[in-house]
Amino acid sequence: MAELRYHPLTRDWVMIASHRQNRPQMPRDWCPFCPGSGKVPDDYDVLKYDNDFPALSTNPPVPDDVATSLYKTAPSYGKCEVILYSPKHNATLPELSVPHVTKLVDLWTERFRELSADEKIKYVFIFENRGAAVGTTMPHPHGQIYAYPFIPKKLALETESCRDYYKEHGRCLICDMLADERADGRRMVFENEDFSVFIPFFCEYPYGIYIVSRSHKQNLTQFTPRERENLARAIRAAVGTLDSLFGFQFPYMMCMHQNPVNSGDYSDDYHFHIEFFPPMRAADKIKYNASSETGAWAHCNPTAPEEKAVELREAYARFCAADKA
Fold first, then answer.
1. Model-wide pTM > 0.85
2. Beta bridge mates, 99
3. pLDDT digits (tens, 9 = 90+) for 274-288
4. Cα angle vertex 108, ends 214, 223, to 5°?
5. Which residue of the set 7, 140, 142, 169 is catalytic?
């Protein structure tokens, strides 16, 4: 079964993909993403790999006959891709060179452009799940891309908020957020010529950093070569900073927020950024999403962002020192 089912209470779509339960358990001594597996080329730097068990596809099956006058279904049209960061099985983003991570940014850009060309696609979501704490079972460095035939609810709410703010103030909401954070300074972690990294004022997670473009642009395709390289530097350093907090590979969910596609003009009111959702609240403690967060979407951060920003600045300094050694 692979279909979309409409949630009338939240006005959102849910992907039903029961076939993904049949994914095989990988042998311990074999990885499909490593050269020599027969699944990928023997020589690559970064690579797009079509998901073997996609929740969305360009040739979806007809939905099951379960719809009613209340409950709607739709074909699970879209695309699910895996983006391989390196042929090295245990490499991490901070261990890759800036030119290598720039190749990754260039591949993301290429995939965003190509997937956006399909008029049925409404949102291209680039993300990474890293670590067992967020459910990752494949250690080989990789992220994913989901190309949805709808705008997911959270992203729709965010873009609507940005549009409403622009209508009221004539300015970009995220530009103003960045200006406030830079003026205050207490939650800033680091920045380069083109990107700023900080814990936002309202952060739901103790170490939930944002990477925000310092220029008002909506998606990867609008960045210059210098901006793409500086985005690579910012992502690499952001992950290295998290890893330097407690001296181990920090689990996280990394979510790239870009404008919806084939859905109108967002050039005035939306702004590219990346949100990190790291579940650790201490070296040995996980911040679980419990009933308030999941059932009410009412988050509670048990720490002060200003205090955690101090820890992150110190971790960034350690990462930079080790990176130069």
1. yes
2. none
3. 999 999 999 999 998
4. 30
5. 142
